[in-house]
Amino acid sequence: MVSPGGSLLVAWQLKDKHVLIVGGGDVASSRLESVLAADARVTIICPSTGLHPLTKQFIAGPYQITYHDRVFGGTEDLAGVDMVLTAIDDVDQSRVICSLCRDLKIPVNVADIPESCDFYFGSQIRDGPLQIMISTNGQSPKLANIIKRKIEKSLPEHTGDAIEKVGKLRAMLKERAPGVGGEVSKRRMKWMVDVCNSLRIEELAQMDEQTMNKLLDEGWENDTVPRLRGLGIQRHLPISIPTVSTAMPTVLTFIAGFTCASMLLLSRSR
Amino acid sequence: MVSPGGSLLVAWQLKDKHVLIVGGGDVASSRLESVLAADARVTIICPSTGLHPLTKQFIAGPYQITYHDRVFGGTEDLAGVDMVLTAIDDVDQSRVICSLCRDLKIPVNVADIPESCDFYFGSQIRDGPLQIMISTNGQSPKLANIIKRKIEKSLPEHTGDAIEKVGKLRAMLKERAPGVGGEVSKRRMKWMVDVCNSLRIEELAQMDEQTMNKLLDEGWENDTVPRLRGLGIQRHLPISIPTVSTAMPTVLTFIAGFTCASMLLLSRSR
């Protein structure tokens, strides 16, 4: 029933948490971007000679970053730290940092040394509130990347917008019908599911505050989801209207049939 | 440059780690499945009256589960625990457990109380070594689910198999050309990227050990990726061959053109 050998994929919360990054190269800069996107406070320890241009840009940017131009100094660098990411070439130093973190029960990821990692990173997609992670559990980072691009192409346009709008509608509904747990909670959840099932992602993304109020007034209050026409949302058709390029084969086939018949009949009539 | 407000999506490693689950209802059973898939050792604390049939099935199954038929007892239940997941209705008890975990620096997730969570769960896809997580950062679990189904449909068949095969090829290559870091590491990585770029996922999934050896003998040794024909892999065509149903409109359009011309010419010839 359970397929073993996997990882536990989770969305770690770093808001106002303190992340230490040891190293400043290209891997460190990508780690930096990931933790800044999760609203972490960051400390970077790395001699300035080892800073990647991107890392420099982040340090100079409008972020919560404290930078120390030196190598890792020992336990005192771990005081008040909630997560440690190292990306340095010195394997022995990496192992020392990992061991200190384990003693202090600080989650740690050491780039390129799987056994020194409490967690791994994967290929990621971000579109507003939407985050998708693709992990091959270390089997093929390249395929993870190829799959990531396929998924990016398959997502409807404005998916991030749709999620944001639905989140807003949900918050407005909670204001209108407050309460945690029990019947009201269940009714809210059911209605939100109905809304998400009745409208396409492209349609949900078109909602504005007026539409949301109409949905709540006419829908929630009457325990239904109103028709699109009344909501001022443009119907999104899954089947596209034929364009010149898609209609062309049909036109050409008709002409071919027409021409064949003409030639056949004209040649016989002579 | 950085889009804030997100989470840090990671693949947490639980092999031989000890996870405590407090609760035994349907949410707890889904947590249980997730951590068993990551090879965790699990302890469940829940009065037997509160066990969901699925949780019971897991407890009776061939898994590393220790079950205690009682409520949570306090700090002593957290000894040697690496992660805590609670899914109980008692909000006060949940907050107590969360606070104990924070004191002991044990990562904790309390179902339905976001502020008591160090991490969230999301919609997940699993196909062998492939794991995909979809998070809307709490905005819309239903849309996460809809997006999950869209992604499942968009993935090529046998994607999990392809990843497994590529992982095996990578291991065989590492045996043939061992060494960590430096030139050989770079050449290995580049060749693996070439292989993944040259073959489609459906084609990679067809590789057997013989194919892999051929790829290594003829490809790696000559610094190239051999053609499919020599590898015994069936070419996977992205454009499907027209079947009766897809060819029908074309045939009908031709007949329509033919008929129109015939009628026109025959009516004039009279």
Q: What is shown here, in short?
A:
Chain A is 48% helix and 14% strand. Chain A has 270 residues and is an alpha/beta fold. In chain A, the strands form two sheets. The first copy, chain A, has a five-stranded parallel sheet, with helices on both faces.
Structure description:
2 copies of one chain form a homodimer. Chain A has helices at 26-37, 53-60, 91-104, 141-154, 159-176, 182-198, 201-204, 209-220, 228-231, 244-269, and strands spanning 8-12, 18-22, 41-45, 65-68, 83-86, 108-110, 119-120, 123-127, 130-135. In chain A, the strands form 2 sheets. The first copy, chain A, has a 5-stranded parallel sheet, with helices on both faces. In chain A, strands 8-9 form a two-stranded antiparallel sheet. Chain A has 10 helices and 9 strands. The longest helix of chain A has 26 residues, at 244-269. Helices cover 48% and strands 14% of the residues of chain A. Chain A starts with 7 loop residues before the first strand and ends with a helix. With 270 residues, chain A is α/β, with parallel strands linked by helices. Chain A folds into 3 domains: 18-121, NAD(P)-binding Rossmann-like Domain (Rossmann fold, 3-Layer(aba) Sandwich), CATH 3.40.50.720; 122-153, Double Stranded RNA Binding Domain (2-Layer Sandwich), CATH 3.30.160; 159-231, no CATH class. Chains A and B meet through strand 1, helix 1, strand 7, strand 9 and helix 4 of A and strand 1, helix 1, strand 7, strand 9 and helix 4 of B.
